[in-house]
Amino acid sequence: MPDVVWVFLLALWPFTFGLSMKQGLPSMRDSLTNPVHVYEGDDALITCVVRDIGENTVMWKKEDRERHSRRVLTAGDSRVTADRRYSVLHDSVSSEEKDVPTGGDVWVLVIKNSKPSDSGIYVCEVNSNPIVRSFHKLSVLSKALLPPENGTDANVYEDQKASSFNSKNHNYTDCCISKNVSSSCLGFCNIQSILEGNTGQDPEHCEADFPNIVRCMADGRNHVPCCIQERVPDICQDVCRGEYTAITDNIKTHFSCSAYTEQTLACIVEGIELLPNPPQDVEVEALTEKSLRVSWAHPDANTETVTEYSINVTSLKTFDERLIEPTESNPSRSSDSHTVHVNVPSTQNETVLNDLSPFTMYEVTVSALNIHGSSLPSYRVRSLTLTPGKIKPTMAGTSPKLPDVKGCCMKKGIGHRTCVDKLCDPSLADTAEITDLMICAPWAADTFSCLTNGMDHTPCCKARGLPEICQQLCTGNVTTIDFNYFKCLRYMGDYTNCLLQGYGVLPSTPTGVHVTNIETEFAILHWSAPRTLGDTVIHYNVHFRMFSAFDDEDYKSIAKVHSPYILEGLESDTDYEFYIEAVNTHGVGEPSTRIAFRTSSKIYEAKVEEASNYNVTACCVEAELSSVCLPLCSYDANMSDIKTLAGVCSPEFTKLLRCGAGGRNHGACCTRRGVPASCVSLCNGVMVDSLLVTATTCIPYIGNIAQCFEEGTGLLPGPISELHATVIDDEIIALEWEPPTDPNNVTDYVIHYQKVDNTSMHETLLKLDKQINTTDTSAILNNLDRNSIYHIFVVARNVHGTSLPSSIIMINVTKSDGELVSGVTSPPHSLAVSTHSATWVTITWQPPEFSHPSESITYRLYHKSTTDSVFQITNTSVTSHTIQNLLPNTQYIVYVTATSKKGQSMPSETLIAWTDPAYPAFVEPPTVHPINLVIEGSSMTILCIAMGTPMPTISLYISGRLVRQEITRHMVTVIHNVTRDMDQISCYADNGYGTPMQASRKITISHGPHIQASGITMAAPGDSVTLECKVDAQPGPKMIFWKNHEERKPVIQGGKYDISISASKDDEDKYMMHLTINNIGNMDVGDYFCHAENAFGSATQPVSVRLRNLATTHNVTQCCMEQNVSSQCMDACSFYLDMDAVIDKAECINDFDKLMKCAADGSDHRNCCAQKGVPRGCLDWCRGGPLNDNKNCVLSYTKLIMGCFHEGRDKLPGPPQNVRVEKLDMHSAKIVWDEPVKNPHTVEMYRVFWKIMNSDMKRLQKDTPNTYIDISDLQHGETYDCVIKAGNNKGTSTLSQAIQFTVGAEYITSAANSDDSSHTGVAFAIVLALVVVAGVVVGGVWLVKTKQMGVKNQGGVAFENPSYLREVNMDHIQVPPTQAESTNIPNGTANGIAVSTTSGGHGWKQESLHVPAQHEVNPTLYEELKLGQDGAGFKRLKP
Fold this sequence. Notes:
The chain is extended, with a radius of gyration of 56 Å. The chain is built from 29 helices and 71 strands. A six-stranded mixed beta sheet has the order 1-9-8-3-4-5, with no helix packed on it. Strands 63, 64, 66, 67, 68 and 69 form a six-stranded antiparallel beta sheet that branches. Residues 278-390, 509-602, 719-817, 827-918, 1215-1306 form the Fibronectin type-III domain. It holds the Pfam family fn3.
């Protein structure tokens, strides 16, 4: 049984004296625990030995299995129970001799005049802490079990056993070893080890060995009677028989017997002492067509107690008549098997069974019996009685004598003893060895001449396959023996057989060989005696093999058999062949002819068996069970399938249950097999409680129930069908019905009927007040009460039990016009509200108790509020339904009916259901786990809890994004791969009533540092350089600058190093690291390292400083001269512009615009100026542009601006050079240019602008890292302007020289690069030059006038600095044209480049920047992103 593991875990009556080994506890190690056996009326004495009792008290108790409790009998020396038969024997005076057990340690419970009801488990208990107990089994035997006067004296037997055997020490290790039990599990092969818990292995690891362990534990004894006496159910009695049912995936192996473990092990321990082993060496021999001889050897254990032997003979069912030889008679017999029991005295060890059926297979077992019980049956032996007219020969005839070969050899002078004894003896010649041939070689001619006896045996030798050289030995004409003949030794067996055959002393081939009764796994072989020397045959040998594709299967041999012989162990649907050999005293005769046959197919047999039995699967199909659930519709269903499909198939469990029961009443079987009363209803296919409660209570007994279902299909009658009733008269009703599918299994029918009233008519009872029996399928009910309502149903019955009602009739006994009333299902029952809310309730119910198992049933649910007058109806096929759209806090009336093809049932009981009041949703702040440590990249679990009725919809938002939404009260969400922006968590709840509610929580996402460094910084000797790193980390890291990364050499604050570390005001996770190096020199050049570290990691990024090694390409003096700087201000125009030389000269203020233009060196430094706090009104100087009013800028910001010029002169590029155009096609051109002269190595991106000259078309632009770009979608014949600027992450250059080009059909005309050597071209060039000169003059005049008017002229193209990130990205530097051209965007042209008309920027100008009174605020997030994250951002101006 599956719970046998508990045998080893719980140890039936566990000898808990193991606890007494603890220091200071009483000990029961010496307590006598052997079972006590007394006869009714005798006194029973049960002994308990307690050492070191101390101040504790000994109590005797008795187990009460009915109440699962213990009844106290005595306490100390005093009797507690009212039964005066109980007393305690105890000597309170201790002995002075320490080696002698003291009387004070012995406590004997005395039961005078014992009764059978006194049998049971008695507990000797000491009230120590912990409690120490020992368990004692008492069996009070009935006087009827006393043996006769000449039988064994039971008292003597008891004395012998008490002195020679202790059941607790029973060791069956040898048996376990012989059964190949694993060595690690041998601890279970000793009861003492099991009881003391010293098996040394977990029982689960020995599951595979338990069948053999249990078989050895039972030791061949039949403990079943004891188990029955102890009320162990039959399904749990397998261990009592020495059998073990391993738990497999099959549901029939999942049954519960744990409640009977103690009783089972108690019976085994008792039986080991009292019962005999089974008889040994059982043999069965067919004597005649009606008799068998059975013999056996006495048991190994308790042989002296055996009083008799019981022989059990069972005939097997009829064989199929498939006789290959039609002459073989096969008298007809009944297909039913029958059993014969024969008892013989213990003094006999054989008997003859007579009056059996001819040619019938019988199975024979032998059991040993004594006064206490019996052994288990011996192993089964099958035998066939002989066919009619045949009698087993009692003795074999005398075989012919062999020729005197030895005499022949000796006459020819062979005197060597080995040659005479071996080679000259045909029966021993096959034992000759090489040394024998070598010794006897001189006499070889005489030896083989005598062996052949003057005959030529060559034909036989050839037939036996002897090599040609060995065939010479068969003629006897051998002159010499050399090494070539050594190979013949392997054929000496066939050689001697040919000699014996030639002598005429062996029998010929068996005759009449044929096969009958071919089944799936066996067949019966027949043959007759050989024609020659048949009377000398002592037995036969059978050789058989399986046909294979290559015909290389070896023959298997079975020796010493007789006809007929049962050839067992065959495979189904397989071809076999066999032959027979006869054997007499001289040897083996010639083989018979080969006979071939084919075994039957198991598939066919299974189909035949299935056709004759109840088909549970067909029932499920007819009941419209879902196809996905069909694997569960089998008595051999798997537990794995049940677990997998439980969720899907639970609504259809009742269909499975009804079809499993098959309309049969299995209640008696389930009760017998230990199914508790709360689950017995399932055995009738009825579930009285919810599926959850039923499964929780009854799933341990699923195997018990499934076995009863399967057993009942062959024993119990099926349900009737088509029950009809007709009122014939005012007091008479006529009933008719159809019999079950298998009417042969029915002995009679029982009609139940009962008068009901308005209250009882809704009850469904399995037994009604009145019953009548009939063997027909119709009946008349008389003497009924007029105008009364009756319930009627019919069940089929046989000797094994009854069917279940398949339908019920409710009929009014009132005379009608022969109206036919059909039986319908009983009403649904057990209505309940499983779940409910303010707007809905879920109603569940159980299916009808009375219905045909395969009947398709639907349900009709009626409901209405107490204020409504009409019921609303809902149809469903399952046993639950959710009623939606109800009103809160309202009472509803509900009932259900069942509908089948027979009609509609009575209504179920009425259920009153209330909906809940409505409450607005309330949500608690989200709970996040782990609570204090959410790490970036890990997982976090978020719990949102919301209240409210009806159930609210909970929404989870993380950083404003909806992550999950569900209608529930508790929503658990696991977020994987957490990122640092997931710090804002919100739970939102709404149920449609009141105001929705939101609760939020901000969490901290811990992560290791991430560093953004400023990269390489160029500086001139003596400059001050600031190296910057941005650190993102949580929690706050430790930050440091290293000079050497590998040596971890720090940069120390002081001297020329100034270290500043600060936290960001806007973001608590951001930190700024600044390292300022003053008066930089060659020793300061190199790599520095920003290092940050916290508990979750560390990061290091290099920042480098380099001295510029390129000579300046800008001649400031030349620029000042070109800008007409006055002579008194030329002091500032040295190698680098020195504003300190002129800042105090009032006359130079008007030249500051010119000086700033030269100082800007063609680059845009507004990014730096904005960071240093230069106001917007002075920013034009930062790109070399003029100011309307520069006095304030001169006084306050000149040094800041010059500082930016100084910082950027080696960082910002100059404008691209030598711009030119190449034609691609009619609408495309390639713009090509050279790198800037100034700082070409700093260029990261070029921006190209183009548009049609003198038109209002939108300016187009394109970015590229290369010194060329392709532009397309050009208009044929139009002239385009094109300029280019260079840029990097620090800023941009001024615009390049403008170029104009025209796209022609075959060429591109470039205004800046035209080259024509014709005279016309020269003339055109002269004219054009004059026009240009005139234009310059006009422009100069206009410029002077505009300056005098004080109006600023700002030409060229401006676009904001993209604040290039460390890694240049087109998305970061591309500017929408609408922003680039707007004059009111917040950043204006702060980082743009103004190209004056004198630099070739004709036509590339925009409106002047008019700045109203404004104050500065931080930029928006969009603006900051557009400006970049490296600090390029400007303050946004706000009026």
